[in-house]
Amino acid sequence: MTLDLHFSTADAAILGSRLLRFFQAPTGLTIRFYHPPHADWGFELDMPWLRLSTEPPPTPSPLSVCNSLTSEEIAPDSAILWCSGNHRFLFVTPSTPPSLLKHEFLAGHIFWQLEAEADALQDLDLAHTFTDIPDALARLDRNSILISANQDLILSLIQNQPEDLWQFAITPQSLTLALNLEDSSQSNLRAYKQLQAFGEWQIQAQKHSLKELIGIHDLMRDSYSFFAEFYDRFMAHVDYSYWLDKIFTWNNRFASAPAQKVLELACGTANIAEQLVFRGMEVEACDYSPFMLYEAAKKCFCPTLFLASMDEPLPRQNHYDLILCLFDSINYLVKTSSFRACLRAVQDALKPGGIFIFDISTINNSRTYFADISQHFRYNDAQLYHHAFFDELSLRQRSSLTLFRKRPCGWVSSEEQHAQRVYRHREIMALINDCDLELLAIFTLESRQNLLSKRM
To answer: Is the pTM of this model over 0.70?
Structure first.
């Protein structure tokens, strides 16, 4: 299955390349990325599912993606659909054929008009009418589409730009998704999820309808999605230099040679990896969140970044002097099988004599900092609420994050959930014994004493 992406300007293509750089294409999907020949994004795009082309895309394409809908790219017989939450608005012109309302993509919806536009839309023969805008906004739901010949009216109704706002151009022969990418974290996040859902929908959907597409999109729930944009501010209290001093002290104590080739697992926004690059090391860093990597790529001393989870085999074997996994990241491996897979991947990637350093969230730490704790953070145009709680029986640490973004006429909200497993020391020691890694030491940040010598 192939999906065409058409970015007609160099600036748009650069934004598209940043979106694709850490994109995880659905299995079975090939993406053809059409871009101007002079677009220079400064990094390689060599994924097996991606095809690059500077030739004009084939026209017409039944399903395609563009960055924005320009007047030159919109066919005379098309209609423009905006969709978010319970609101669906369809802009039509005198050239829009009435048969377009029977398009497969719009199946299962009831079409409405405003009483004031009944004459302008009489050719569409709409049976349902709202008396005015307040009536429409109060009664619109996911099964309803408000049709209007007034584009300015629709744009005024969506000026709050919800986090999940979609835009499509629909013709009798084609459907085009407009990503409307801008140079911002929230735009990249929205476009990434829409492109991924659009690809999954193209492969999996039994009926290519808007309802099925939104259903696939609504099932996509990621940790570190919108939170990635705010992560560095959330972690501003962390003294990364202090952590690095500890890491080098431990590494120098146990390693067979100074660390030169370093990998950071679950690197987040690469604050540790960036400082290692600054110190002259060969540094690679990976994370499972494409949105974290999008932020990491902005760093001045950026390591080599790639998308990977902690529990999958690493691309380089017998290569690294030092592998790091910090800030309780390993606690996100809630299954022992995933923890064991992570240790085996590390074992294969380390050179003989190489060191793996990771930290954990302990039961005591969870009781102190995550047992029914609420925090509120204010930013320039957003507010973030964090509620953490710890389940003593299941040893699960959970965090709920709610983000409110300022919009012209109010606020829009988003939520994401985080879950971690708090392992007992004996569990971790048993998992290490199951592989060929040797446990050399257990430290706290506050003490130089190797706690491994104590009775655990």
So the answer is: yes
